[in-house]
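Trying the structure run again after the queue cleared.
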Amino acid sequence: AGGGGAGTWSPETSSPAAVNTHHCLLLMSPEENTLKLALLSLAAMLHNDSLIVSASSNACMNFFFSFFVLRFNKVQTKMSEKKQQSFLREASHQIMAGGSAGLVEICLMHPLDVVKTRFQIQRGKSDPNSYKSLGDCFRTIFRNEGLIGFYKGILPPILAETPKRAVKFFTFEQYKKLLGFTPLSPGLALSVAGLGSGLTEAVVVNPFEVVKVSLQANRDAFAVQPSTFAQARLIISANGFGLKGLNKGLTSTLGRHGVFNMIYFGFYFNVKDMIPASQDPSLEFLRKFAIGLTSGTISSCVNIPFDVAKSRIQGPQPVPGEIKYRTCFQTMVLVYREEGYLALYKGLIPKIMRLGPGGAVMLLVYEYAYGWLQKNW
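Done. Tokens:
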């Protein structure tokens, strides 16, 4: 060690090696030269140069600390960015797959939705426009309104279907994740997640449903009825955006979608997990289709009273200018008293014909589209 008091160091009182070491320490970069400092400390200790050891050790500790803090912060930032990117990627896949499923389902099944609505808004045999049977309804619509009559009101659901089904499947997946942290059993959590997704979906879709039902209830030829946007403007100018206008029948729509999705998702995923998967792609497709068909059928049977109430509230009232059907449960009670309990199940057959296979198509398109997007995008 050089001269001077104990623990004191200066270039004038130290060996050339110590001077060079001091200059090296001053030039060290915390990110690039930490390993060099460690080796320098080790060399100084081997030569028993206590002053160099003291200086280099202290510097090395400081550099090691700053180096690892910087590295830790960078790792944390990268992990956060990757997690955010992963969530956005997954969410975009769910939204795109859900929108695709909804678009395919509505294009295939809309004619049955028109027939279902016509049955639900007719008021018993006293109604002069009453259809005698399902076949009579199809024949009458085709004869009076043409083939395009079966696609009345299709634009609102097409405009709504992508966000509607995207909301349906995306929110179901998010609610399912959140409920995974609760003490609910996995089977029950799936049903509750379905209920939550249905209520969320109902809020998004209700304005479109109001326009759709008012167009479907119109029995004029397609060429003379108002367009979708003209009908929407008419509703808004007459009653505004509130519960008497574009959001009329919101409570019945909440009931319809909440109950349907609760059973639909709960039944499908629970039963699918119970029945073993097949290695044969064709048999696996049939397995999923059969479970989806059963799920859509059961859900339709349970939620149809809400659907009838929604159609009565959102459709034309019996006496123009007089509001007869006001709220969800008031409408159900009124229909039951005046027409019997079977009236609450009007339109059940076309509804099952649509949402039985339609429900299966929707789930299958969603699963296959989501799987393809996960692999390829």
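The two ends are 65 Å apart (CA to CA). Worth checking whether this holds up in the mutant runs.
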